[in-house]
Amino acid sequence: MSFPLAQHDHGACIRAALDAAEAECRRQGARLTLIRRRVLELVWSSHQPVGAYALLESLAREGWSAAPPTVYRALDFLLRHGLVHRIALLNAFVGCTHPGQPHAGAFLLCKVCGAAAELDDAPVVKAIAEAAAGLGFSVSRQTIEVEGVCPGCRDKDPAP
Amino acid sequence: MSFPLAQHDHGACIRAALDAAEAECRRQGARLTLIRRRVLELVWSSHQPVGAYALLESLAREGWSAAPPTVYRALDFLLRHGLVHRIALLNAFVGCTHPGQPHAGAFLLCKVCGAAAELDDAPVVKAIAEAAAGLGFSVSRQTIEVEGVCPGCRDKDPAP
DNA sequence: GTCCGGACTGTTATATTATAACATATCGAC
DNA sequence: GTCGATATGTTATAATATAACAGTCCGGAC
Ligand SMILES: [Zn+2]
Ligand SMILES: [Zn+2]
Ligand SMILES: [Zn+2]
Ligand SMILES: [Zn+2]
Predict the structure, then answer these.
(1) Dihedrals φ, ψ of B148, to 5°?
(2) Which residues of B touch A131 (CB under 8 A)?
(3) What is the DSSP letter of A99?
(4) How far apart are CA B18 and CA B40, in angstroms?
(5) pTM over 0.85, yes/no
(6) GO MF annotations for this entry (chains A, B) (predicted)?
(7) I need a surface site. Which of A59, A63, B14, B73 has the fewest CB within 10 A?
(8) Which of these CATH numbers, 2.30.110.10, 1.20.120.1460, 1.10.10.10, 3.40.50.10710, describes A10-156?
């Protein structure tokens, strides 16, 4: 649960994510088809949220016969099964770092490098739940997206 | 700081919002021109977030010569001066209930009636700030949007 | 007063994101 | 093997947002 370092074995991130996805789909009785798997892999190609049309271009370059619904359907599947999150602020998608474990999904988004880090959202969710309960509002879903500068970029580019 | 009741003097909401906007613009040395004022009034025509193209249609019906940039510029002005908020989940805009007072903007969005209520976000902002600080992330802006069912709709339609 | 520069608005075109609708294919249970 | 459900292919279009440039207004300098 930390910001991805500039240097790390990202291949391991991807492999771990795909393995976790396979396991999670098995557990849920869902079919991680070839294209869904490939879209997930593309979403994981970095730690930056990726737009649907960027995914579409990648698929096209690889020779898939791909139109927008191809990608949106795959993303919809991945969202429904908790394998990716949608970042509303960016209209983009990012891999979930802990599928299977129920959580709301809260993100730190670096304005400099574009990286997204999934936050441990328990305390935030609790604060929101309390505030909402005070107004008699029953919560079903939360969107928590925080823009700022990640530690790596802050060190590189000290405030002028 | 509560959910808008189904029955209330909404004309008073609108008047209060426009008065507050006049005052805030004077304070900031900004010009609340006719079209900006009218867009703000339209945003406030309900407590539900309104899309840019819905505003555009309203303006057109009233005889304004309006194209998308007309509305987006007005909205941009209102956002920059803290008079409206953008709801990323809905691609829509809602009036700010306390312009001039610095706050992040956190919203409860009722899935049934569509109403939005601005939450007192201090505890939530604090929880996020602490979580972010723990990762060395410096926060500049937060998006907090909570979907659920408001008290009014919950009472009307008890869970089946 | 008038000239200037910045801020505002009008207008056309286009980019970006997302979905509707319907045809075809594939899978797995029986 | 047949059938129904699920998944994919394909075309078209909806919904949201911005780029670019021309014209206009407005307040202050002179
Ligand atoms: Zn990685
Ligand atoms: Zn997650
Ligand atoms: Zn009201
Ligand atoms: Zn506000």
Answers:
(1) 170, -155
(2) 106, 119-121, 123-124
(3) T
(4) 8
(5) yes
(6) DNA-binding transcription factor activity; transcription cis-regulatory region binding; zinc ion binding
(7) A63
(8) 1.10.10.10
